[in-house]
Design a protein that fits this description.
The protein is of the alpha/beta class. The chain folds into three domains: 79 residues, Winged helix-like DNA-binding domain superfamily/Winged helix DNA-binding domain (Arc Repressor Mutant, subunit A, Orthogonal Bundle), CATH 1.10.10; 92 residues, Periplasmic binding protein-like II (D-Maltodextrin-Binding Protein, domain 2); 100 residues, D-Maltodextrin-Binding Protein, domain 2 (3-Layer(aba) Sandwich). Helix content is 42%, strand content 21%. It has ten helices and twelve strands. The strands form three sheets. Strands 4-3-5-12-6 form a five-stranded mixed sheet. A five-stranded mixed sheet has the order 9-8-10-7-11, with helices on both faces. The radius of gyration is 30 Å and the shape is elongated. The relative contact order is 0.13.
Length: 296
């Protein structure tokens, strides 16, 4: 518990500016004895003299007092800013799961800025756990993500259903198939994401089908996964499907849809269920939903 309150800091700043306890007391609408007692109490707590008070002379601020007054002014300015700040002045932060951010985040921000020009928007990518945490803590206002790590405390609207894909080396025995099932894929070494919650998600997919695939590698990024695949290290699975058949390092690969119904995942727009009702939120949610209707 703090021993020195904002009111105490107001007293200190007022006395430093007036160089008089009497004048400061009048300005603060408190009695002179009360103000003197408060200043003495602060000096006692801090163990330093803030002012030198001599009868018949103006108050002198000590070197320590000057440093304290400067910090007190900053503290009071911050308190005033917090008290009078408006939520309307901050940008709406749109979060996006990092794997799909390159496809959606920039177009959505561009659309929102055109449709709601009076509001500023900012994008932020993240992983499942960090997006859920930032939504709960008010650091992110809306998040575009799969429903992994978001509990019942979040409101959501479904945007689309996504069919995952398998990445295979160009000469893989399954590369000439039109699509693949999870059962077919599980017979080959796999390359999966190392993202914390994704690990459990894919494990549950295979467990539901009583499959126990061998995980050859885990990749921290989509392009690392595709590079591993192109070099024959296994079959990759992802819900993101980059255009092109070449990995960053020039390796050739094949991309096939996964036809198992249980593998399909829904993409949502999330926001905190504890968020205060805001008439400005609905147009943003509607604009994002309309965007996905136009691209599907």
């Amino acid at each position: 518990m703090l021993s020195i309150t904002l009111r105490h800091y107001e007293y200190i700043v007022a006395v430093a500016e007036a160089r008089s306890v009497t004048a400061a007391a009048a300005r603060l609408h408190v009695s002179q004895p009360s103000l003197s007692v408060a200043i003495s109490r602060v000096e006692e707590i801090l163990g330093e003299r803030i002012f030198l008070r001599r009868k018949g002379s103006v108050i002198v601020v000590t070197p320590f007092g000057h440093r304290l007054v400067e910090r007190a002014r900053d503290l009071l300015a911050l308190a005033q800013q917090i008290e009078h700040s408006s939520e309307a002045s901050r940008p709406v932060v749109v979060g996006c799961f990092e794997d799909i951010a390159p496809w959606y985040l920039a177009p959505i921000l561009d659309l929102l800025q055109r449709q709601v020009p009076a509001q500023a928007f900012r994008g932020q990518e993240g992983r499942f756990a960090s997006l859920a945490r930032d939504l709960a803590e008010g650091k992110v206002d809306l998040a575009l993500s799969y429903d992994i790590g978001f509990d019942g405390g979040f409101e959501r609207v479904k945007l689309r259903t996504v069919v995952p894909v398998a990445f295979l080396p160009q000469r893989h025995p399954l590369a000439d198939q039109p699509s693949l099932t999870l059962e077919q894929i599980a017979e080959h070494p796999l390359i999966l994401s190392s993202e914390g919650l994704s690990v459990g998600y894919f494990q549950a997919l295979f467990d539901a089908l009583s499959l126990a695939p061998r995980i050859a590698h885990r990749a921290s990024s989509l392009e690392l996964m595709r590079s591993f695949v192109a070099h024959g290290m296994g079959v990759g699975i992802s819900y993101s499907n980059p255009p092109g058949r070449i990995s960053y390092d020039g390796g050739a690969l094949v991309t096939l849809p996964i036809s198992s119904p249980s593998a399909a995942a829904d993409l949502f727009l999330f926001w905190s269920g504890l968020r205060a009702e805001s008439p400005d939120l609905q147009p943003v949610v509607q604009a994002v939903a309309d965007f996905f209707r136009s691209v599907v």
